Amino acid sequence: MKIGIEAQRLFRPKKHGMDMVVLELIRNLQQIDHDNEYFIFVKPDADQHVITETPNCRIIPVAGGAYPAWEQIALPKAAKKAGCDILHCTSNTAPMRCGIPLVTTLHDIIYMESNYLKILGGGATAYQKFGNLYRKMVVPSVIKNSRKIITVSNFEKKRIADFFSLKNDNRLKAVYNGVSGHFKPVTNCDTLNRVRQQYRLPENYFFFLGNTDPKKNTIGTLRAFSDFRKQTGADYKLVMLDYDRHELEKLLEEIGDQGLAEHIVLTGYVVNTDLPAIYCQSKAFLYPSLRESFGIPMLEAMACGVPVITSSTSSMPEVAGNAALIVDPFKPGEITAAMIRLHSEERTRLRLIDEGLKQAAKFSWKAMAQDVLNIYKELYSERNQ
Questions:
Q1: 74: domain range?
Q2: Whole-prediction pTM value?
């Protein structure tokens, strides 16, 4: 087989969720499959050494302007030129007209859900609103034209099946994400000290991967942290990644606690390889999102031996199992209560660390890549029957 994989953002310096998923997929396919040919279609950018070619895996830079033009015009043209038997689009959208049997990964369909868009309200950025609009326009056609549809949890599989009337449709498969091997307890003192100094980490802190997407529940987390400090008097800080100071100040004004800013550390962007040392030095990882299709950061924290607080909504109980404190993310008081438990109950903290290590070990990128490869083989077999 000649298999094309869309990895448009793989070379961008600041990688996030879906970028890391496709990176791990490619790396693991390179390890387990030496029979088929792979063509990785990327948009030129600065981080060109994030992955290397192997004898059966070629990296093909494809220019093409803004994302819609790149995806709808440049990508299918490049895939046809490479002679691909299958094209796997990995990031929620795909060409509406392709001419090549299409596998599409739908990480989620949050952008299709009117109740979620109401939650977004005015909180979404212009970029996020445009992305949601583009997906709403494209995805129904992509669903219709895809020969296989991959999603990342059974929760999301049911959401997609219900929304697009795909019940009992054997095109739709759930394939769990994994957790990378470098997420593990860090014991090297030099590494811990370097990361602590580089990102100005305090002695005692909760770790939160907040961003401007309202689904991350940043405002609810800030309310909970504010109440935690008021109720306990404990000298904890909140460490947040890659968040804008001005946006933070607006949220603190909204919750009526501008003074909380002096107890929040904004690290800026953190390279993926430094994340384990940040997880490991935290007292707990906060992941009380309103809506997630999977929740890789939960597993990363668990694999690093850190207690996790997460939500009772969407896929998070499915992924967390019994290895996290589960809260209603719409009730900041429940988040606060969980934080107080981890501050004051050592037995609970140690239990969650132990259960978390066991839970994270159930998920691997190698298993994910093998499941995806089996889907490629199934499609190729069906095509040639």
A1: 2-178+364-383
A2: 0.91
